[in-house]
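Trying the structure run again after the queue cleared.
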Amino acid sequence: MAAITPEELNLLIEQTYKVENEFNELKASYAHLQDTVEKVVEFLPNAVWILEREDSTVFLQNSHARELWQLLKLLEYQEEDYEIKFSGHSYLIKSSTYQDKVMLSAIDITEQKRKENLATMGQMAAHLSHEIRNPIGAISLMSSTLKKRVIPENIPIVEEIQKSVHRIDRIIKATLMFSKGVEANKKEFLWSELKESLNMSIDYYGYAKEIEFLFPEEDFRLYADKDLLEMLFSNFIANAIDAIELDEEEKGVVEIKHENEGEKHIFYIYDSGIAIENEKELFEAFKSTKVKGNGLGLVLSRQIAEAHDGSVALCGGLPKCFKILIA
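Done. Tokens:
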């Protein structure tokens, strides 16, 4: 066997170094590619799992997937996308395969489903409200005529009918407004005019307990939609009356206070009734803890305030108090 010459040995060493450098470059490139893939997967807003097809072990996953590791146990590969409910949320599941890997993706569609359900409920409620409006108008007209003709002893019965009709009419108006959206037609008027309308609404609402209503005595001008503000305040007053009716005390108080902040009007509404049960669901449409409630009053009140470049929120640190800002 011929001996390797020094030149051949040097050439072999050079080739070895070259192969080693190419291997290191390839290894670095693969590591960079793997790091890029991991970052892309981590960047995705949905939970992603990449599994070994043979034994379903996790090859790669992002942080969203780690948080939902229990959900992975319920998932399976399917040709078509499907929905699944888990821990109070709705998820859209997508899956695909490539060579020896299976990729599963879970997209949280809870908010999307909620909006779809609200839209459907709003459309149904608006349709029913249109259907109910005509007979309610006829009942209201006939009860006014009946009140003039019945004997005095029966007048309270007719008045109760009118109060019930007024309550239904409020629900119809709120439902139709929710389905169409709130638009403010602003004009200048006095607080005393709005207060008079609120007092009339209170008389129609009806309640059994002795309730004191304390409204601002000073008069001031507002540039707003009077009808919308009447609905806004009536919603809060109606909620306050219901809360007082459910309270153990025989008497109650509903108070509205007013302050100016430049050209902005700030109102504080307080009542002595039972405490709010679930503050998180206060402004959630079609959710109400009241027997009489339809779940639209506070939602519409916030929309009305926003239509006036204002807001509605709970008073910080004070129970049963709402702060209403009207710009």
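The domain at 110-181 is CATH 1.10.287 (Helix Hairpins). Worth checking whether this holds up in the mutant runs.
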